[in-house]
Design goal:
5 helices
Length: 157
């Protein structure tokens, strides 16, 4: 299965991240409003010779206001995307720190258990060596513990 989600695309092609953020920050309505304002300003300046003042001045100020509002809207949209991306980045960093801490804790637990197991094995080996040394140094250690008849009866049970 192919994953075409934005996060998968950005993981596969990290150079696309700035373009993705720019696309998220783009507000078409804001740019349209600024374009309308620019058209009003251009019309009022180009029509200065034949437009009457009561139309030219409001068109000029309305165009300037539309440009300011449109660009302000775009700036607010871009700031919101920047803050959202920063929050998502901080959240992913916190999750990565938590995973790293959990992995280190698991590693410490495994190492501690390995030390305990090694200690138990060394104690068992020392006890076995002591029993073998005791069995070898004890007088009569090589003689059978039971008579042949007793051993045969026990096997027959």
């Amino acid at each position: 299965m192919f994953d075409f989600s934005p996060s998968a695309i950005l993981l596969a092609q990290p150079w696309l991240a700035p373009l993705y953020v720019a696309w998220l920050a783009f507000a078409p309505a804001a740019w349209s409003l600024a374009a309308v304002g620019g058209a009003l300003v251009a019309a009022s300046l180009l029509g200065a010779a034949w437009l009457p003042g009561f139309i030219r001045r409001p068109a000029l100020w309305g165009g300037v206001a539309a440009i300011v509002v449109g660009l302000g809207w775009q700036a607010v949209q871009a700031e919101a995307v920047r803050r959202t991306e920063r929050a998502a980045h901080e959240l992913s960093l916190a999750a990565e720190r938590a995973r790293t801490e959990q992995a280190e804790q698991i590693t410490r637990d495994i190492a501690g258990q390995a030390v305990k197991d090694l200690d138990a094995e060394q104690r068992a080996n020392a006890k076995l060596k002591e029993l073998l040394r005791d069995a070898q140094t004890r007088p009569g250690a090589d003689r059978p513990l039971l008579s042949r008849d007793d051993a045969r009866r026990l096997r027959g049970l």
